[in-house]
Design goal:
This protein is of the alpha/beta class. It is about 25% helix and about 15% strand. The chain is built from 15 helices and 18 strands. The chain has an eight-stranded parallel beta barrel.
């Protein structure tokens, strides 16, 4: 890569999220792997993305699909080995594609050597201090140390059996018992994570996506919460005693300094992008101050209902508060934890709906026109809907295992990609002895397979490809300012100050277009002078 063009590349980058186990299987075991990602790089280069974010591939018992890490400096044999990782990074760089890896600093796996050592050690030991161990309440310690509940359901505490066989202390896990939370108030934890950062930076990665970046620190006294079930109820970081503590910003300053050190050495800027879930855009902005994270995902757009006022509100707040720090907004509409837009914006029926697909296309073109960076989740560019009818016996999401409820399961957006053909496995895996994909693919995936998408110029894929190509051709499309234009109530329109006008019709009926002539690009059929319902379009004008 050309180091002279590398500085601040992240400001308007489009990054493709690769959920490795569902991307492409190279071995026939039914799970995607690193070699499959490498084989798929030409497809991603053709799509036009600037980089990829790899979901966790580290050694793990896979209780939460790799977000329970047993070794932060290795590769799980399910996905390959370090040699294959190095080949992937080198191949991506030859194609001009940057590589981000997912790092999980809030918690680890209960199989991590440090946690196993903590279980074997005595209460009050240095080994236990790396986690949150505490005596229980009640006459015999039979009650948890506080009333917190885990985000994935159930109590946030599990009691251990001590070496003498008696019930002992409790340990904290804000997700599942298999994911104990690190105690970041112990300096050795931060020191070890810096060694992990350097390990992967030395292998050539271009940055890190940071899981639960508003986590890490808890209130030092671990008091009761006024609303202990808030995290589980909302499936979000709501408990003010467990998330968004002020000390976490010192961690991001330390990590930013490490990245700046590497950038100074070779001119290649490394990116830190955080999964930050906080109540307001103003609080979100605190994480992307000039000496902290470069960027943080802005989930308010993802969470917004299909409504012009709702979209305008969250976009305005983000541009005002986040861009005001000197960072750029990191826009996202889909990820591995959320119902896909085709289903979210339409009717919850198998295969999605025409209305949901039209709205998803319109939202995508809006996102790609906004100033800042954008993240695309694999399959989004194919118009994949959520798979709503997975049988109970194939669901692996720990939320389902802990609660028994299908209401918030995430496996429906994680079904392996369809690449080719008319029947499962749709090219995801191959070979006479190939195992079935780890989650079953519905028959209607045939209409979304990449071979069909590439041959259909009206497909989701071509809409994304054309949008990405125009981003690269129009000057600073992902940067700059924006100004809202006067429109009818169901329409949002803005100009970028660089000649680009983007408009979205959230309504059901055509409205007058905000710019003359045929659009440069539209999410659906358009005639000059009007913008149909559930459609977005770009024009280049002198406005």
């Amino acid at each position: 890569m050309d180091a002279t063009q590398d500085r601040r590349w992240w400001r308007d980058a489009v990054i493709y999220q690769v959920y490795i186990r569902s991307f492409l299987d190279s071995t026939g075991d039914g799970l995607g792997d690193l070699a499959g990602v490498r084989a798929g790089l030409p497809y991603l280069r053709k799509l036009g993305v600037d980089g990829i974010w790899l979901s966790p591939f580290y050694p793990s018992p896979q209780h939460d699909h790799g977000y329970d890490v047993a070794d932060y400096r290795g590769v799980d044999p399910l996905f390959g080995d370090l040699g294959e990782f190095d080949l992937l990074v080198a191949a991506a760089h030859r194609m001009g594609i940057r590589v981000l890896v997912d790092i999980v600093p809030n918690h680890c796996s209960s199989d991590h050597p440090d946690f196993r050592a903590a279980l074997a050690a005595a209460p009050g030991s240095p080994e236990r201090s790396r986690f949150h161990f505490a005596p229980g309440r009640g006459a015999t310690g039979e009650e948890p140390p506080n009333n917190w509940h885990a985000m994935f359901g159930g109590p946030a505490w599990t009691r251990v059996t001590e070496a003498d066989g008696r019930p002992g202390e409790w340990y904290l896990h804000m997700f599942t018992p298999q994911q104990p939370d690190w105690n970041w108030r112990v300096s050795e934890v931060g020191d070890d994570f810096e060694r992990t950062l350097r390990f992967w930076l030395d292998r050539g990665v271009d940055g890190f996506r940071i899981d639960v970046a508003a986590g890490l620190f808890k209130h030092p006294e671990l008091p009761d919460s006024p609303d202990p079930e808030a995290d589980a109820r909302t499936r979000d970081s709501v408990n003010p005693l467990a998330w968004n503590q002020p000390e976490v910003h010192d961690v991001w300053r330390r990590w930013r300094a490490v990245c700046e050190e590497y950038a100074a050495a070779d001119g290649r800027e490394r990116l830190l992008v955080g999964e930050v879930s906080v109540p307001t855009a103003r609080e979100h902005a605190r994480y992307v101050r000039p000496d902290e994270l470069h960027q943080a995902f802005f989930f308010d757009l993802l969470a917004a209902p299909w409504d012009a006022d709702a979209f305008r509100k969250v976009i305005s707040e983000a541009v005002r508060d986040i861009a005001g720090t000197g960072s750029t907004v990191t826009w996202v509409l889909n990820n591995h934890d959320q119902v896909r837009t085709v289903t979210r914006y339409g009717e919850p029926v198998p295969g999605g709906s025409g209305l949901g697909a039209a709205r998803a296309r319109a939202a995508a073109l809006l996102m790609l026109a906004l100033p800042g960076a954008a993240y695309v989740y694999q399959g989004e560019e194919l118009g994949l809907p959520e798979v709503l009818d997975l049988p109970d016996d194939v669901i692996t999401d720990p939320i389902f295992r802990r609660t028994g409820s299908r209401a918030r399961i995430r496996d429906g957006c994680r079904v392996p990609l369809p690449w080719s053909g008319l029947a499962s496995p749709f090219g995801f895996t191959s070979g006479a002895q190939a195992a079935k994909p780890w989650l079953p693919q519905p028959d209607y995936f045939a209409a979304h397979a990449t071979d069909a998408a590439l041959s259909d110029t009206e497909s989701f894929w071509h809409l994304y490809r054309n949008g990405l190509q125009l981003r690269s051709e129009l000057p600073q499309l992902g940067q700059g300012t924006m100004t809202w234009l006067e429109t009818s109530p169901d329409v949002l329109a803005f100009t970028r100050g660089d000649g680009l006008v983007c408009a979205v019709n959230f309504g059901s009926f055509p409205v007058p277009a905000p710019a003359p002539g045929l659009p440069l690009l539209a999410s659906g059929p358009c005639q000059a002078g009007e913008l149909p319902g559930a459609t977005s379009a770009w024009w280049v004008t002198d406005l």
